[in-house]
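re: the backbone from monday

yeah here it is again, tokenized this time
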């Protein structure tokens, strides 16, 4: 193709992208380019895991065991909340987010920084549903490559989720019986 044809094609493509973004956003600013980059990154991440699994020569199971599905679900839930909401992991999110306030026991409410390149990352890092996709992919690959170690880690995360549930149930019971949310009988 000639340079003039290349420029016309580039202008048409740019106009199509711009009009699609404008029509989609309905007046709101949406980081579609950032989302596209995140999708591309996720695709590359899962393709890399798939390649490593393939090169390992380990056979894929016919279907996942029901116990592994449950274990992966609970572990991914706990790990995604730990990474996206926990106070202790806020230094990982700080470059991409701003602190708003507490949100639940040992969790924070943060918002994405509205700076180019940080908005999408901040939004994805504070969304347990978004990080959950990455966690399930990672844990699944781990089960295929290092099943014993991965199941041990998932068991620990599942136990942590159970301990969290018991802490919340205990706090609710104490509040119900004493009327004081801070009184834990001590």
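seq for it, each position gets an aa:
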């Amino acid at each position: 193709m000639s340079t003039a044809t290349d420029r016309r094609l580039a202008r048409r493509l740019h106009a199509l992208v711009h009009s699609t973004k404008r029509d989609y956003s309905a007046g709101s600013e949406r980081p579609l380019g950032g989302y596209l980059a995140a999708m591309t990154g996720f695709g590359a991440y899962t393709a890399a895991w798939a390649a490593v699994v393939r090169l390992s020569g380990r056979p894929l199971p016919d279907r996942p065991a029901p116990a592994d599905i449950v274990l992966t679900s609970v572990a991914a839930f706990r790990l995604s909340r730990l990474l996206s909401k926990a106070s202790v992991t806020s230094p990982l999110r700080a470059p991409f987010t701003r602190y708003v306030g507490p949100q639940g026991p040992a969790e924070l409410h943060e918002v994405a920084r509205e700076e180019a390149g940080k908005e999408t990352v901040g939004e994805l890092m504070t969304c347990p549903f978004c990080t959950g996709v990455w966690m399930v992919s990672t844990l699944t690959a781990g089960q295929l490559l290092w099943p014993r170690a991965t199941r041990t880690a998932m068991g620990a995360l599942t136990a942590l989720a159970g301990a969290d549930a018991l802490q919340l149930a205990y706090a609710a019971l104490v509040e119900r019986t004493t009327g004081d949310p801070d009184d834990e009988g001590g």
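The CA atoms of residues 80 and 131 lie 5 Å apart. Helices lie at 3-25, 32-56, 66-85, 90-93, 119-125, 128-145, 147-178.
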